Amino acid sequence: MEIGRLVRTQPGWAPTAADRGRRRRPLALALGLSPCRVRCRAAAMPPPPPSVRTVSIPFSDLKERDGDLSRKIEEGLGPNGLGIISIADVPGFPELRKELLRLAPKVASLPEDVKKELEDPDSRYSFGWSHGKEKLESGKLDTFKGSFYANPVLDVPTTEDVLVRRYPSYCRPNIWPANHLPELEIAFKALGKLMLEVGLMLAHHCDRYVMQQGVGSYDGESLEQTIARSRCHKGRLLYYFPRKFSKSEEGGSVSSWCGWHTDHGSLTGLTCALFTRSSMEIPCPDSAAGLYIRTRDDQVVKVTFEEDELAYQIGETTEILSRGRLCATPHCVKAPSSENASNVDRSTFAMFMQPDWDENLKFPSEIPYHHELIPPNGTLTFGEYSERLVNKYYQGKT
Ligand SMILES: O=C(O)CCC(=O)C(=O)O
Ligand SMILES: [Fe+2]
């Protein structure tokens, strides 16, 4: 189970000298978009939240290690950015995306006894199948989506029992439905590894941007190095079950499929979702459904990126270690609620890139998240930090 948190409504970092000179700009301008690219449907009532296109970087630019992408990184991920950026034209991505996303409904419809065998309670459902185990904002268990988790890089991250017991959500082995859906392992690993590879390229440019901002002693905290060293990346194949809303129900809520949260790791890769109705792939029948983000100036916007683009969001750990130069991204998912949206499901894939469990994190003295978990010397391994977080969320102890 991935841990996130409910969302703060204001940025938690005190403005730096560099920030103080900057005025907050309207979102469209902050993103370098012309206002006409922020669309608002003319509807009688109430108007849906604006839909905003991500800042996009062509893959050919991303792979130039010496190229200067700092303007785009700042526009997309910096203190005034939306917190999500997309990469276009990644070779091989569209095929790998379709191959994996088409398997999400198949995992969800495996027989119940097979899914039970794919569960891993000892990792708090952080490997294999997980459905109805995670708590929502409302405190209710989340039955709206099912997830299949695995480490796409390492089937057995460690054989040391003591580590497996200490950090079960990272160190336990993968579980694959080898007999019932053998193609899942192949497709999952292929897409997960590609998203990691592209994520590392993006991380390199994020590091260059952060260093340009004058963050001292950043070397040990390089996002690229931190991700490259890690043995605990996690992929999550998500299947959102069709939802039905009665007229008076919460169909209008933007978090009707996935509650508001920020991811707690370093960088999250996301695919554009695939919608199906009765096993037929369809365009999403409700333009208001999909991924939403809360912007730095507290607006809720629907985010769009192309089917063949890979999107990346910043996690809390990166915000903390970059001293707020890169900001974590509060997000949620809205289910279709229009009349023709019944029986529509949604499949997507998230690739959580996070530091190794053994990685020493030096936390700055002021952080906007979970400061009560940090010891006075400000140092914890990522594994210790994550365990403290899990305890905070699931047992109410720190
Ligand atoms: O379904 C999505 O698009 C986002 C999923 C997500 O936020 C997560 O798994 O943390
Ligand atoms: Fe998320």
Automatic annotation (TrEMBL):
Source taxon at top rank: Eukaryota
Domain Fe2OG dioxygenase as annotated: residue spans: 238-355
SUPFAM superfamilies: Clavaminate synthase-like
Keywords: Iron, Metal-binding, Oxidoreductase
Family matches, as InterPro entries: IPNS-like_sf, Oxoglu/Fe-dep_dioxygenase_dom
GO MF annotation list: metal ion binding; oxidoreductase activity
Similarity section: Belongs to the iron/ascorbate-dependent oxidoreductase family.
Protein name per the record: Fe2OG dioxygenase domain-containing protein
Provenance organism: Leersia perrieri
